[in-house]
Batch of 2 targets.
Target 1
Amino acid sequence: MRVIGIVSRLAWRNLWRNHRRTVIMIAAVSVGIWAMMFMTALMRGMVNEMVRDSVKSLPGHVQIHHLDYRDDPNVINSIPEPSGELLDVLNSDAVVGWTSRVRVPAVVSSERESRSLTFIGVDPDSERNISFVAADIVEGRFLEDRADSGIIIGRKLADTLDTGLGKRIVIMTQDPENEIADRGFRVVGIFDSSLQSLEESFAFTGIATAQELLKIGDEVHEIAVTGTDFRKAEALYDLIAAAAGPSVSTLPWYELDSYLGTMLTVMDGFVLVWILVIFLALSFGLVNTLVMAVFERVREIGLMLALGMKPGVILGQVIAESLMLLLIGLLIGNLLAWATVEPLSGGIDVSIVAQGMEMFGASAILYPELERNDVIMANLIVIVLGVFASLSPAWRASRYQPIEAITKV
Amino acid sequence: MYRSMKLASAFRALNGLIFLLALLSVPAASAVDSGASDSGAIDPRELVKKAIDHWRGVSSTGEMTMIIHRPDWERSMSMQSWTQGSKRSLVRVTAPQKDRGNGTLMVDNSMWNYSPKVNRVIKVPSSMMGQSWMGSDFSNKDVSRSDDIVDQYTHRLLETSEMDGKQVYLIESIPLEEAAVVWGREVLRIREDLILLEQSYFDQDGELVKKLEALEIGQMGGRVIVTRQRMTKIDEPQEWTEMQVKSMNYDVAVDDNMFTLANLRNPRN
Amino acid sequence: MNIALRLAWRNLWRQPRRTWLTTGAMVFSNIILAFMVSLQFGMYDMMIDNTLAVFTSHVQIQAPGYKDEKKIRQSIPAAQSLAETVRDNLDELRVATRGIAFALASSEERSFGIQVVGIEPDHEPEVSSLPGLIKEGFYLAELESNEVIIGQVLARNLKVGLGDELTLLGSGRDGSFAAGIVTVRGIFDSGMPDIDRSYVQMPLKTFQDIFAMGDQAHEIVIRTPDLEKAADIKAKVRALLPAGSELVVYDWDELQPSLKQAIQADMASAWFMYGVLIILVAFSVLNTVLMSVLERTREFGIVMSLGLTPGRLGRLVFLETALMGALGFLIGTALGAALIVWVGENGFSYPGMDEMAERFNMPARIYPQLELMPLVLGPLIVFASTLVAALYPALRLHWLQPVQAMRAA
């Protein structure tokens, strides 16, 4: 115990004997750590946001459709509301929320314009927890119940159609007999979304209203299910697919949007690589510093060895210096990272390249997110690999022959 | 990309004929009583209904010409028409040569189109129904849902005036809450002999968007009807579409078979 | 100068390990920078090229207003002969003419609204990658035949195959009925469901007949072998337009602004990362130079008292660093180049790249090319920053007092 105490004190004092050098090294480590974490936070934030947006707009972690629906999203490709085993699974604990929707292509018209879009009938109570709409209402209100006959449209669509809250717009689509099904709807709510395309492509009304208009009884087109975490969707998917059976198509979000699914995996790999690269760049300087520190003190080390200090302790001392240096650097770096991410958590506005971001599927505002796993990984890698890197000079220091060392010029 | 917006605007050819069919049910005058009681209390809904019934008659056959006018070009098309009741119409294009033989059949609210070039009958899907017809200023809605004006709206008499010794009624029609109608309101000027002089379409802010005006009134097939009328968009006065009635016969016997898909494809007349 | 150079060089090698470690840091970063920047530039070019290759191409001639309104009447008169003029005058370009309209496509069973594009079978394969994506049957061959190629999803939805007939109904340029019966000659799979579901190509003359276009068309599409020259080509093409013509010439940036923005966004984030690397290397260099200066304080004191001016001393130190930097630059760039060449032979890919590649129409393996600018850009900046880092210690020497220096331990 005493040895550790002495070693630590010696290591600490040695660090500060050449404070300029130590300060620079600490600064380098801090900047390195900060960069690791800041960049990672940005990237993570971006991808997480993208996935969350996708999960809210699909919506859900898992979806069920008629087998032909994805190729041909037609009104006839409908499925019955869940029942039996499927319903049991949906009501179980594995599922955080689920909702059924009617979803067909339609044309919406105002006095001056018409556009094609996807017309969706929802159950507001269950939809609220799963998709984006309820939360993104900026004017008016969300739907109140299944039979609500108001309509909710996106801000961009409202502008394009030159319509607004309280006005009537006409939805025209067809029923399973190929007959025209159309009706006027009052706009009761307008939503905003970070992805503009969502604002143009969807209109929502109560599911019962939609079913009546389309004359499909109580059939639906889409069942969306969310679990606890989008990363754990595979287990949820297995569960639901088994319960739903082969007569329908069940798919997890990362297959419904395969681009995003891979983005997530790629990002994980990318973060690791980034951390390693930074560390390597740092390590050159770190080793250099230690080598110098040892070299300067050759005579001193020789003296200590001659006086009976065990080589192992010398080794420990050098490593301790390195460790302290790293720890201080880590501390400052982590603090810096937290200090820069926190204020920016309100979002970084990159709307200059908004359209480009939409091409990636990301919104024009970046929300950095410092994830615990990433922080732990970065710190661990720096400490472990840092100590590892300092082994060589430490080892050499402990190997000095006392006589040679003392007499070194 | 191009796609989604334009799917909605693709199918104009069919809709042109639909307009025609609608026109056939737009009210025209007759010598029949306008429904006014002696004390002058008019039931506006009755009036509108009568005006529509008047023009369609129990059945009709006729010839018409449509002219589409734009700042830089003009196009005209001639067609023959048959109607029966308020729910069945058949139209065939007779000129120009390029379009000759094209036909549209409407039964209830469904519409089919036939083109001799491809020798096929196609039912028009809903995504194509919302279009302006043949590049004209008539939309499908104006055309295919002519009857809607009676049942899908509530009507109110605004004022009564006189023109050339005849009473003219100004009626405001407001769409029902759930009607598949985009307009805020429409205002119709109907003469006591059931001639629709004018139909104005207002948006939901009260702004006038387009107007159908009767330009010439004459006798056809024993009735006094509008023989020339024009639909204009208020914002673009240089763009309009005009319908001219060349001949019309009312209440003649029209065979039920006229309004079948088989006949659409293979005319027997 | 010679003496200074030799002295500087020798000074470097008095502490070989230190010099090598610092050079090592530079080499490491340079390899990374050289490789990544080259990879990036290559990828961007490919991303642009491949995305543009499907439809947009590099430059287009259109009628005014067509780009935003897409009305059939907004067409180019005598389109094919204009295209021929461009071809004759600028023969490094590939030019094709297209007519575009919207129609209803019906088979026996179903109808769908689609986009119909009239193309020139001789020229279209030169400007678009779509002809190469035919999976069944053949691409179009004659300028005037009643054949079409359709997407896989559309074929499935319409329930047609090769040789089956489709009816097309729409309205022509003059408002008349446009109708035609066509046979399916080929089925393509672009990998983009939107395209596969709603896009049909037919020969241009047939298109012009059906849609009453006369000799008019909507797009003259121009492809250049060199992406960089797009702006240049745009000017030259504009000069070839008939006098007084109202036609507009667009380059790809105006036709697809999101593409450039996506690249800008990506580039910005990449440079943030490079910046961090460069800073870390600079720290490393600063540390080293500082150390090497400080440990030679006595020596410098002696030399200065013997008559060497502080200015020249400063220059000597600076030169040392410059030499070290040059060493790092040369070795790093050479190794980086070697890496690029090696990867260029074998291809570069990482897990998950397929889906990302699909989104941007890229092949799943990338073969980076060796080009001077991207290769040396990063390393040059590193070199510059090491010089900057060297300034501080060099300047400090100005204030060195010889007597005090000699007294330093």
Note: Chain A is about 55% helix and 20% strand.
Target 2
Amino acid sequence: MAKHHIEATVNGDAVEFLCETEETLLDVLRDTLSLTGSKEGCSSGDCGACSVMLDGRLVCSCLVLGCEVGGRKIDTIEGLAKGETLHPLQKEFLQHAALQCGICTPGFLVAGKALLERNLNPTETEVRYWLAGNLCRCTGYDKIVSAVMDTAAAMRKG
Amino acid sequence: MAETNGHSQANGQHYVGTRTIRPDGVDKVTGRARFGADFNLPGQLIGRVLRSPHPHARIVSIDTSKAEALPGVKAVVTRADFADQPSEFIPAGEMMMNYKDVVRNVMAREKALYEGHPVAAVAATSVAIARRALKLIDVKYEVLPHVIDVVEAMRPDAPLLHDDLFTVGVEPRPDKPSNIAKRVEIKLGDVEAGFKKADLVIEREFKTAPVHQGYIEPHAALATVSEDGSTELWTTTQGHFIVRAHCARLLGLDIGRVRVTATEIGGGFGGKTVVYLEPLAIALSKKAKRPVKMVMSREEVFKASGPTSGATVRVKMGATRDGKFVAAAAELKYQAGAFQGSPVQPGVMCAYAPYDIENVHVIGYDVVSNRPKVAAYRAPGAPISEYAVESVVDEIAKKLGLDPIELRMMNAAHEGTKAAYGPKFGPIGLEETLNSIKKTEHWNTPLRKWQGRGVASGFWFNIGGETSVSLTVNEDGTISLVAGTPDIGGLRASLAAVVADELGVPYDKVRPIIGDTGSLGFNFLTGGSRSTFSGSMAIVEAAKQIKADLCARACKLWEAKPDQVEWKDGAVRPLGALAEKVKPMTVVDFAKVAGKTGGPIGGVGRINAQGAGPSFGTHLVDLEVDPETGRTTILRYTVAQDAGKALHPAYVEGQYQGGAVQGIGWALNEEYIYGSDGKLQNAGFLDYRMPVASDVPMIDTILVEVGNPKHPYGVRGVGETPIVPPLGAIANAMENATGIRFTELPMSPPKVLKALTEKGLNKA
Amino acid sequence: MRYEAPDSLEGAVALLAGAQGETRVLAGGTDLLVQMRADVLDPDLIVDIKKIKETRSITEERGGWRIGAAVTGAELKEHPRLKQAWPGVVEAANLIGSTQVQGRATLGGNLCNGSPAADSVPALIAAGAVATLAGPRGKRDLPVEDVMLGPRQLALQKGEMVASFLLPTRPARSSDAYLRFIPRTEMDIAVVGAGVSLTVDGAGIVTAARVSLGAVAPRVLLVSEAAQAIVGSRLDAAAQERLEAAARAACRPIDDKRGTIEFRIQVAGVLARRAALIALDRARSN
């Protein structure tokens, strides 16, 4: 069984890789492309730690096969900051202490950014439901939600 | 109050007590930080574990020949590769463990004692080959009857897990083995006499299910062993020095030859204070002569890493009609899982600790059953016993017509109270937490129908322990701190602030790292809410050395006598007449002349931290029940807890909030669900239901600070207490909302609806 | 394990019909990949249908809506007019899993995974949706309630796949709603699911209704007795009670880690009533 040869764009860069059919996009990102920022918490789409953007859509990379992403655009946590400039969400997370162990943080940042791209004025309830697919066991979500809401407010001000 | 002299900068600035940005933060928000599974070595093999499908079985034979012959398989290990260990109890976090059990939990020997128990492990060149290899291992089992429930396991005719387990703590010592490993007891006064004095006696039995710590990061380890036995290990752990000790012991290695790096850790809560994969990875690497990387799947985490105990708890309390508690008794039966060592002892100790009661008698049983061996989970044992006690306290308040906070105030432990488990309390903050809850707008907000309010208090004793840190002044005056307790929640921010204030340097000039075991003296693990408490204490010691050293160097430079110089506010300062001749020198100034004045500047703190102060908390929760479906919504939550001194307020708040939400999950939806076949049915995040963001509201926090006089800054550990009150608070709120006292956790919708329907209450 | 991504229905059908070993259609992958990872499934061939135009489009057809089998829940939600016409179907599809899962999960996959607890299926059945299957002998239509026969048992023959769904046209003052019971607020598999679609006349009387229940039997149920209980009424208290009773009577659930038999039966009645009231409210303003 020959491997698939895939060309895609990851964080704006052209990449190419080989993968077996059963390898997920998460496997490819972590093991083949050495982008270990996306985390594996469950491999069943229940924790969101592997969240990435696929053609502008928030998905769990553990639920996408590597061989499905030929010609597609993938954005991971590694692409959130621009050079040395952190994304406003990243800055707010640090300010708010919205992370303790930090394992869920990449997933929350990718998911949070996806929300703010669609809605810059979410209510607290909308934030919580949008992020319901991202599990956190350390923070109880309070500071994460505050950080997202404050980022939205800051970004609205321009 | 704690001494604060010398704890500020030359310009009077403090970092301690402020909301600094954590030094490891940027790496964590960019995905750069490396957790356990993020480490790789060239040429590494992938390790996988074969696990018992049976909850209880004798392992008759293991044939690994076909697996070993599979191309790509470089090593296979079984019980044959691990020497047996004599029985020896050692502390494991706040619990005890026995090496004889540890070696059997890491790799089954005579028997498989739970579904998921490791039976063999392989290392292969790819995941696919490793998985195929496991299928080629032929294990012959003699399936035995199993027992899951703790009360069932205590029966004399229950299936026996260990034929060499004789109950300790009963007289006379039994001559027949059983599943009851231990009986523990604490006594104060005379409860029989006390109950006679009571106007009201309430006795209730409660039941809880095992719950898992639920860390999002599965266990992971990467080991490489050289031909001379030197071993390097990267592992996600709360205690890499402990891991080193266990692995050295289990594999017959010199401790000095094993170097363990604690990777960033994606949650632990006590569950990563033990070893699972590490000895296997080392044994495989030794055989294969290549690095071996092992990562657990989520299913393996649930099936084969320790949850906390499920338990049956009977509580009996007596009070006078004006609310004074005159007698308190309890009997706790805690499951240990497949090997002894449940947290029944701390459960016994903590049950009545928040209260000043003359007559107390608590008995506990540690019982084995065919489930994974339990591991510590945040204040191990206490949430269970205190759930039961706080429920009965609430019932007493209701029956006597007393305000539940007033009732607790009346009986609250305070400075000078002798706890039933031994010590006399120094200054403590329980009353302050009760008072601050009483003053909240939350407490004074009216409720609607089907809404209920509950309050509960809780306690954890906290520990200190062996701690080593190293402080180095670099040539440019920046400070390197090497600490040895893995940072599971923002520790480095607090420690950096302490260093900055101690040495009078800006916060961002302090770079803290968690060093590997080769870089420091022994450190006990991160647990017992000790890492900030002990780490900061050790830093103060190290800083003292540096300050003394700098004073000595100043004397040389200034040709002065020791009484002519002092360290104050971030600099060595000349005193008296000397002050007209020379200017003060800061750490940065000394750094520039370090070589000339004697060599590199640094200090070490090597302590066995004593004086850990208990942390008390009181939680307040409002919830709403849908009477037609039994579903509960948490409306509002407030935590008040005594931190002694919050070195970093945001991370202290974070502990309060995180523990509260774990408690919400434990109270409402989390439980291990077993079939009658002894197999776990919900080994994943889909059906092991932890709270998601939409399940909880904001968690308001009140930082009470009753300083711990035994710590230079007044610090108390805070990490564990937050999970203790929620179970009782939520059960009390449920009673307030429905009129029904739920004595079984979790209070999941089917249970709630059934109870409401039986009383004809299931209508809006 | 082979992976093919044909760009036509005929291509997909040919692959499915000609396959020798275990074959699976891949749309969103939110069930398939989980089952593969859990070692429950080990397909020899995966046929990705997302390159096929018919499976990815949402178009109006003869007053109704044709929705491709591989349209995602998120895309359904973002369509400007579908949500107004069929709020129940759209909300059901958007209750599956999380935001991340809704970005991939599809109506076709949700149905063909063969779980009686599937969230979108009761809404589709209540809507009277018809599945269009493509197979070696051409296309055929099957009401959605006839597609899932039991857990993991479909009425599809070898080589057949679901290509699209047709939501029918219907009169003014019609709407639908879907409710499910889960212990948390998100992320759980439905313990009970209830989909109701109805039409009212100018006087507020229900003139047509369909009621479907999920997770209370080996397949998703179309409960005609429950519909009959409310047709001709204003969904007053007596009608609501009849509806609840009919819903409960139709249940044949199991005890499992998500709910007990008695719980499911009881809650099925409650949800059917609540969903009907929401649908009524929406229908009045349509």
Note: Chain A touches chain C at residues 1, 4, 20-22, 24, 43-46, 48, 51, 54, 57-60, 62-65, 67-68, 111, 114, 129-134 (CB under 8 Å).
